[in-house]
Design goal:
Helix content: 10-25%
Radius of gyration: 14 Å
Distance between the termini: 39 Å
Low-confidence stretches: none
Shape: globular
Number of strands: 11
Mean pLDDT: 92
Length: 143
């Protein structure tokens, strides 16, 4: 493993179902975790899903409604952190314009998933394409 120093201005945005995900730290850079600067419009966010890796959301600006497992939705504001263990069904919805948060993945290769979504899925998305790509990266949708 090598040390990595990166800057927000050196990363290209990936568009994933209407959200912007800017890679700050990835497996390709030699890190065992991945960090993305995530922004989007109100009501954007993934449907309930699960994957093997842990996921963390660190709120920087705006508000985010997060559902983890069978819990009721919880509204996160700047300074809040949500931890989702791998294998747990979860979803979120951006609750206000200008929302910005860090998405942190423990393992797995999120970059390859996000990159493929950016390259192959436009907005509004074709759900068949989303399911096909997600399944290929070990992501399962609930229901």
């Amino acid at each position: 493993m090598t040390a990595v120093i990166n800057h927000l201005d050196t990363s290209d945005d990936l568009t994933v179902i209407g959200e912007s995900m800017r890679p700050l730290l990835t497996n390709e850079m030699g890190s065992s975790i991945e960090i993305y600067d995530t922004t989007g419009r109100t009501d954007m966010g993934p449907p309930p899903h699960q994957h093997d890796w842990d996921e963390i959301y660190v709120m920087l600006e705006g508000e985010l409604d997060v559902v983890i497992g069978d819990e009721a939705p919880r509204r996160l504001a700047p300074g809040a952190v949500a931890f989702v263990p791998g294998g747990t069904t979860h979803a979120y919805r951006i609750a206000s314009d200008g929302t910005r948060f860090l998405t942190i993945l423990s393992t797995g290769n999120g970059l390859s998933f996000f990159r493929q979504m950016d390259e192959e899925v436009s907005f509004p998305p074709d759900l068949g394409d989303v399911v096909r790509i997600a399944t290929g990266h070990g992501i399962e949708f609930a229901g």
